[in-house]
Amino acid sequence: LEGSQISSPALDELKANPKARSALWQQICEYEHDFFPHDG
């Protein structure tokens, strides 16, 4: 998607590393409106 870029570590690292999961969720929340535009 134009304007949105999320970087994610490997799935195994996400399973083992709570900080990696937290960082990924923060990115998802930051770009949420780019992925799921809300009209009105």
How are the SSEs placed, and which strands pair?
Layout (H helix, E strand, L loop, with lengths): L10 H6 L1 H13 L1 H4 L5
Plain-language structure description:
It is a single chain. With 40 residues, the protein is mainly alpha-helical. It has one domain (7-40). Helices cover 57% and strands 0% of the residues. It contains three helices and no strands. It has helices spanning 11-16, 18-30, 32-35. One of its GO terms (molecular function) is 3'-5' exonuclease activity. One of its GO terms (biological process) is DNA replication. This is DNA polymerase III subunit psi. InterPro entries: DNA_pol_III_psi, DNA_pol_III_psi_sf.
Summary keywords:
40 residues, mainly alpha
On the 0-100 scale, what is the average pLDDT? 80
> What is the quaternary state of this protein?
single chain
Shape estimate? elongated
Strand content: under 5%
What is the terminal separation in angstroms?
21 Å
Number of extended strands: 0
Secondary-structure element string: HHH
Radius of gyration: 12 Å
How many DSSP H or I helices?
3
Reported for the largest beta sheet, the result is: none
Which structural class best describes the helix and strand composition? mainly alpha
Share of helical residues: 55-70%
How many individual domains? Answer: 1
Unreliable segments of 5+ consecutive residues: none
